[in-house]
Write a structure and sequence with these properties.
Shape: globular
Oligomer: single chain
Distance between the termini: 31 Å
Order of helices and strands: EHEHHHEHEHEEHEHEHHH
Radius of gyration: 19 Å
Strand order of the largest sheet: 2-1-3-8-7-4-5-6
Largest sheet: 8 strands, parallel
Number of strands: 8
Number of helices: 11
Length: 393
């Protein structure tokens, strides 16, 4: 296996543009610009790969052919309705099929590079569109690129794939698509569905009758900060992954859990998000021989948070993490000010938050986060042969 990291990127990925909409491609543009200015993409073992669009054979591994036809036809039909398209969340835009297929092709290319040993890790920063359903657009997502990439890995011979989703929203599309497939473990940490779209991701969602224990959901209360998030992550994710023994780790690294994100109510910092990426890399190294496919995802603090979070992700995936005290380069600040007028442009790669946490214990007075942890462990741990009350599991 090569020790390279593949970063799948081309400016044509910015064509996934819904117009006046929260999912603004400027967040990806500014991420790549910041990573370039900090030298992350010029590291010796980093290979930039230009994506090709996913063809229909790939897309129909997950999506209904009738839905593909609708996505193609919708931009030319002013009266089009249906398939979740033409809503405020999923407006129709020109070249919608082509842009969505290209994002999917980027994530598939990342997965193929890792599985074939051409790279130890790969990042598709424009990917992570995890809400799309087989025959329906949802939550800003037209095609479900992580699910298509996972299906491709299965076709290439993978027998155990773990998908970990740290977006603030539940990874509902990926969970549903592999609901009854024991070869795919889906883990999602997210704000409680009682408070946030898509209204799914409760602890009792544990997989279909042929795959019980293959879906794991940690539903966190609004206001959860870095210490609570890290406590929940480490109380659930490592144990579940170790029990499953994946061959490859696929992650959706949405940055919308950040405290400045306008669409959600968690209070994470870029320091806490950086700590999560380091933990994911360590788990991939421990369990998968380093095989890690990372995507972007949500994130709507377009200047203030997303570019820094995902630049940390790119740095962690490509080698040495960036020191949080690092200044953002002047050239990037000027670009960010021009692309996001009126927004606060960060001066450093940190929010000055210590993301340390106290490990979960089954005793003592439980906090709201502890109750969320306990609900998940009690529901799913026995299905995986784990003890929900033993902190060593």
């Amino acid at each position: 296996m090569s020790d390279d990291t593949v970063v799948v990127w081309d400016e044509s990925l910015l064509a996934y543009d819904m117009g006046d909409h929260p999912l603004d491609p400027v967040r990806v543009e500014l991420t790549v610009a910041l990573a370039r200015e900090l030298g992350v993409l010029d590291r010796p073992r980093v290979r930039l790969v230009k994506p090709e669009p996913a063809d229909d054979a790939l897309l129909t591994r997950v999506h209904d052919p009738r839905y593909l036809a609708a996505v193609r036809a919708a931009p030319a039909d002013p009266l089009f309705a249906g398939f979740g398209l033409g809503t405020s969340d999923n407006p129709i835009f020109g070249g919608m099929h082509e842009a969505s297929a290209l994002v999917t092709g980027a994530t598939v290319a990342a997965a193929e590079a890792v599985w074939r040993g051409e790279a130890r890790r790969a990042v598709s920063v424009a990917g992570g569109l995890h809400h799309a359903m087989p025959a329906r657009a949802s939550g800003f997502c037209v095609y479900n690129d992580p699910a298509v990439a996972i299906a491709r890995l299965l076709d290439l011979g993978a027998e155990r794939i773990a998908y970990v989703d740290v977006d603030v929203h539940h990874g509902d599309g990926v969970q549903q698509i592999f609901w009854n497939d024991p070869r795919v473990l889906t883990i999602s940490l997210h704000e409680t569905p009682l408070a946030l779209f898509p209204g799914t991701g409760f602890p009792d969602e544990t997989g279909g009758p042929e795959a019980e224990g293959s879906a794991v959901n940690v539903a966190l209360p609004p206001g959860t900060g870095d210490a609570g998030w890290q406590r929940a992550f480490h109380a659930v994710v490592p144990s579940v992954l170790r029990a499953f023994r994946p061959q490859v780790l696929v992650t959706q690294c949405g940055a919308d859990g950040h405290r400045l994100d306008p669409l959600a109510d968690l209070h994470l910092s870029v320091d806490g998000q950086r700590a999560t990426y380091l933990a994911l890399r360590a788990l991939a190294d421990e369990l998968c021989g380093g095989r890690w496919v990372a995507t972007g995802g949500g994130g709507y603090a377009l200047v203030e948070a997303v570019p820094r979070a995902w630049t940390h992700l790119l740095a962690v995936a490509t080698g040495e993490p960036i020191d949080p005290a690092t200044l953002t380069p002047l050239a990037w600040r000027e670009l960010a000010a021009a692309r996001g007028p009126g927004r606060d442009v960060p001066l450093r790669m940190t929010d000055d938050v210590d993301p340390s946490y106290e490990p979960w214990q089954p005793s003592g007075e439980p906090t709201a986060v502890d109750r969320a942890i306990a609900a998940t462990r009690k529901t799913v741990f026995p299905l995986l042969g784990l003890d929900p009350y033993d902190p060593r599991d």
